[in-house]
Amino acid sequence: MKVFYEDENVRVIDKPAGIAMDKFEKPAHRLDKDTSGVLLLAKNDKTLEFLQKQFQERKAEKRYVALVVGNLKNNQGKIETLLGRSPKDRRKQKVYLPHDPRTQGKRETVTEYQVLQKFENYDLIEVELKTGRKHQIRAHLTFLGHPVVCDKLYGFKNQPCPKGLKRQ
After folding, report:
1. What is the pLDDT along the chain (168 residues), one digit of tens a residue?
2. What's the whole-model pTM score?
3. What does R_g of the chain's alpha carbons equal in angstroms?
4. Where are the strands (E) in the chain, listed by range?
């Protein structure tokens, strides 16, 4: 894997899609198996604790680029919900609204997005996570009615997948 940066405490790599997080020792954060991106790895426990604290205290920015099905109503927005494990499919996360009586134990999630480019049937967006929950982006965008393209878990049945793409 390509190394972007490395010193005695940290290694920053380009994680390709298709590699599960259990292949990495001391990751400071997580990326879904089919998600590619920059992964921050600690080389010792002290650095790992420091980096994880930065993420927990929301001092680190987490930005992603995603192609979504359809065109979003607004060119930018903020999604604020609660997120918890789906009772129907334990592999997935489910969005809950604050007034829902089933919110006990659900975690606050905040996602901001901005449209970078519009296409006929898709929008290319930049997403910034203000919180970092499992499958947060995928669950939030599906909640908006615009799932990430080619997402087999959160996408809609028979949703279009652009030619040449095989994963979210």
Report:
1. 999 999 999 999 999 999 999 999 999 999 989 999 999 999 999 999 999 999 999 899 999 999 999 999 999 999 999 999 999 999 999 999 988 888 888 999 999 999 999 999 999 999 999 998 999 999 999 999 999 999 999 999 888 789 999 888
2. 0.90
3. 17
4. 3-6, 10-15, 37-42, 62-69, 76-85, 93-96, 107-118, 122-129
Closest by CA to 165, choosing from 134, 124, 132, is: 124
- Our measurement of the distance from residue 21's CA atom to the centroid of its chain's CA atoms, rounded to an integer in Å, reads 14
d(CA 85, CA 70): 26
**Residues with catalytic annotation?**
32
**Structure tokens that stand for 96 in this block:** 């809950």
Six-digit token string for 157: 């049945």
Instruction: Identify which of 144, 136, 137, 83 has the alpha carbon closest to the alpha carbon of residue 108.
Output: 83
User: Which residue, 129, 34, 32, is CA-closest to 81?
Assistant: 129
- The DSSP code for 23 is G
